[in-house]
Amino acid sequence: MSGHSKWANIKHKKEAADKQKGKMFSRVGKEIMVAAKNGGADPATNPALRAALTAAKAVNMPNANIDRAIKKGIGELGDVVFEEIMYEGYGAGGVAVIVDCLTDNRNRSISEVRMAFERNNGNLAASGAVSRMFKRQAHFVITGEWADEEKLMDIVLDAGANDLIVEDGEAEIWADPENFEPIAKVLEEKGIVTETAEQTRRPEMTVTLTDAKVASQVIRMIERLEESDDVQNVTANYIIDDSIADQIEE
């Protein structure tokens, strides 16, 4: 179950920079609202809402924010109209990119996404062109004393995980989507705090970038995408070769 994933390591270093509380609360709040609107306010009968609440707990979202998001979703604080849209495209170097949006203005979101691609040597693609390269997965990130393969292995394996990656003081757990809740439950029971708890996409094939200019364009494009309030998540399949990592950081 252990392995090495440069792609995952880079992705989470980026995510650490992106975790500004206001932005994260906004993203998770939207997920809660949409889940409540589509399936009701009771997490016991609404799996999507349970998943969103787990994500909210992972980013320490205040209960008041959570309650307000649920009430908005079920119409107690005004009707919520968000559209879920997935954009697919290619970044510099042929990197496959999926952009998940929750938006109340489709024209605004496509304009912002297209601009981020085009200004960084990328282009949008037809539906299905990129998504086939990714697999839907449950995903957890743990740091601190529990980021230890020996401590976590049996716990997460018994709960249904199919991959555990531990490196640089960070543990990643990957599993099939249906095992999201069992793993979230056992981690909570053990008192193991998660930095990330989500259902996301994992690339089944990767592109190794060996040119610093191309890698910088890819990183800059993803950063621009994540700055958009309409963008919930950006997933890409790149690995940055160690030989150019220092050039990019400089």
Strand count: 10
Strand order, biggest sheet?
Answer: 3-1-2-9
* H-E order: HHHHEEHEEHEEHEEHEEH
Class computed from helices, strands and strand pairing: alpha+beta
Please report the number of helical segments: 9
Task: Summarize model confidence as the mean pLDDT.
Answer: 88
Biggest sheet, open or closed, and with what strands and sense? Answer: 4 strands, antiparallel
In angstroms, what separates the terminal alpha carbons? Answer: 34 Å
Query: Hey, roughly how much beta strand do the residues contain?
Result: 15-25%
Report Rg. Answer: 18 Å
Unreliably modeled segments: 1-9
- Which range best describes the helical content: under 10%, 10-25%, 25-40%, 40-55%, 55-70% or over 70%? 40-55%
Dominant shape: globular
Descriptive terms for the model:
10 strands, alpha+beta, 4-stranded antiparallel β-sheet, disordered N terminus
Walkthrough of the structure:
It is a single chain. This protein has 250 residues and is an alpha+beta fold. It contains nine helices and ten strands. The chain has helices spanning 6-18, 21-39, 47-58, 63-73, 106-118, 149-159, 180-189, 212-227, 242-249, and strands at residues 83-90, 96-103, 123-125, 134-143, 161-167, 170-175, 196-203, 207-209, 231-236, 238-240. A four-stranded antiparallel β-sheet has the order 3-1-2-9.
